[in-house]
Design a protein that fits this description.
heterodimer, A: alpha+beta, Heat Shock Protein 90, 5 strands, B: alpha/beta, Transcription Regulator spoIIAA
């Protein structure tokens, strides 16, 4: 492993911006383009928002972000120990949202899959959710 | 965020800035909806040229304002869309329901 870092913060929406900036700053050692950085921030924002809204359902909990850099690849895992996802296939469907009243677009996983090279989800009801995403930064 | 009202076109022009994420979306929604109703507006133009960041919370916000606008017999236009935002908006499919314009004045001409 070339480098790694770990962040833990309370599941408050005010930490979403902080999490994006922290992960983007860590990723910047791979010399990413502005577009790469924007992709990473957008995907990360979706995963953190999911942890806060769906994992903890806006109650108090800890969101953990672990980042690793291996060669040119950034791997980010966003974890919560909240309620977990009962039907993962449905949750990952574009436009599906369990919270239409909150005007959630249901695009979170689709955005992660579009902006990162790979996305995998491990979740079980009552046991929390881990979302792992990776992106290889091609040299400029 | 700044808002102004174009009486002739019954259009609320919403200029977004900084970051549009889940954290800020609820209060923006409240302010836009309040102004939309107070002005008896019909159309909404979102000026995204000063927006630094947006995730799918922004898509949800735009979709919700589209419903509001359609219910009033109006339309929604997006202007000042950066290439990065364009990718996000394209995958969401909302270009099927909202208009796109280079600038606020172009959007106003389309109304």
């Amino acid at each position: 492993m070339d480098n790694s870092m770990k962040l833990e913060f309370l599941s408050k929406s005010s930490n979403e911006g902080f999490a994006r900036v922290a992960v983007a700053a860590f990723a910047s050692q791979l010399d990413p383009t502005l577009e790469d950085l924007s992709d990473i921030k957008t995907a990360l924002s979706e995963a953190v928002t999911n942890a806060i809204i769906h994992g903890y359902e806006n109650t108090k909990g800890i969101v953990t972000i672990s980042c690793q850099i291996n060669n040119d690849t950034l791997t980010v895992t966003v974890s919560d120990s909240g309620r977990g996802i009962e039907n993962l296939e449905q949750a990952m469907e574009p436009l599906y949202t369990s919270h239409p009243e909150m005007e959630r677009s249901g695009m979170g996983f689709t955005v992660m899959e579009t902006f990162m090279d790979s996305v995998s989800v491990r979740s079980a009801p009552g046991e929390g959710t881990d979302v792992t995403m990776s992106k290889t930064i091609k040299g400029r | 965020m700044e808002m102004r009202y174009e009486t002739a076109k019954r259009a609320l022009v919403v200029s977004l800035s900084h970051d549009l994420d889940h954290h800020g979306a609820a209060s923006l929604r409240e302010k836009i909806d309040y102004e939309f109703r107070r002005r008896r507006a019909r159309n909404i133009i979102f000026d995204l040229s000063a927006l630094k960041f947006m995730d799918s919370s922004g898509i949800g916000l735009i979709m919700g304002r589209y419903r509001l606008s359609v219910a009033a017999g109006g339309k929604v236009f997006l202007s000042g869309v950066s290439p990065q935002l364009d990718r996000l908006i394209s995958i969401s499919g909302i270009y099927k329901i909202v208009g796109w314009a280079k600038s606020i004045s172009e959007a106003l001409q389309c109304l």
